[in-house]
Design a protein that fits this description.
Essential for recycling GMP and indirectly, cGMP. The chain is of the alpha/beta class. It has a single domain, classed as P-loop containing nucleotide triphosphate hydrolases (Rossmann fold, 3-Layer(aba) Sandwich), CATH 3.40.50. Helix content is about 40%, strand content about 25%. It is built from 7 helices and 9 strands. A 5-stranded parallel β-sheet has the order 2-7-1-8-9, sandwiched between helices. A 4-stranded mixed β-sheet has the order 4-3-6-5. β5 and β6 form a beta hairpin. Bound molecules: guanosine-5'-monophosphate.
Length: about 190
């Protein structure tokens, strides 16, 4: 009998480096990961690929997904909607995969309320100043959006207390290794 996988909720403020660390985690087949591609109404960034980073949709399609109960969770984040397609997550966990959800705090709360088999990890920057310099370095946002994302980060950081694990992203290697250790422990226990 195939053992069911679990859900990994991976949150942290915009710009903290979740994407980079996700890419590192997927280099480890022993973690048995599947990445949940979210649906969003946000504009595609130049380096993003449809169906890989996100499913980019308009508001009408997003509302249809809500109405059809297609989403495991969804939230509004700085003027755009983001949500996790339910079907993929169910299929993959049924096949024994551990499904990584890179989602913000409101969505994480919704998933945790569903009483599904999940572990939650919150990634924090060494400081807010460091976070600002990382978002600026990415050059993907206009100044007003960047300021809104920084203000959001300050609101989100206290919610780290609701997560099973908090990891500081000092360096990609250190944070990746800590998360790998957490996941290996969780895999062994479940
Ligand atoms: P970004 O626009 O920087 O790609 O994402 C903005 C925020 O939305 C990030 O904190 C990211 O983790 C979160 N996010 C991405 N996909 C989802 C999702 O499906 N659901 C929720 N609740 N948040 C998401």
């Amino acid at each position: 009998m195939n053992k069911k996988g679990f859900v990994i909720i991976f949150s942290g403020p915009s710009g903290v480096g979740k994407g980079t660390i996700c890419q590192e985690l997927f280099k480890h087949p022993e973690l048995n990961l599947a990445y949940s591609v979210s649906m969003t109404t946000r504009e595609k960034r130049a380096n993003e690929v449809e169906g890989v980073n996100y499913f980019f949709v308009d508001k009408a399609r997003f509302q249809e997904a809500i109405a059809n109960d297609e989403l495991l969770e969804y939230a509004e984040f700085v003027g755009n909607y983001y949500g996790t397609p339910k079907q993929y997550c169910e299929e993959q966990t049924n096949q024994g995969k551990n499904v990584l959800l890179e989602i913000e705090v409101q969505g994480a709360t919704q998933v945790l309320a569903k009483n599904i088999n999940a572990v939650s990890i919150f990634l924090i920057p060494p400081s807010l100043a460091e976070l600002e310099s990382r978002i600026r370095g990415r050059k993907s946002e206009a100044e007003d959006v960047l300021q809104a994302r920084l203000a959001k980060a300050a609101d989100e950081l206290p919610l780290q207390k609701n997560y099973d694990y908090v990891v500081v992203n000092n360096t990609v290697d250190q944070a990746t290794n800590e998360i790998i250790a957490i996941l290996k422990k969780e895999i062994a226990q479940r």
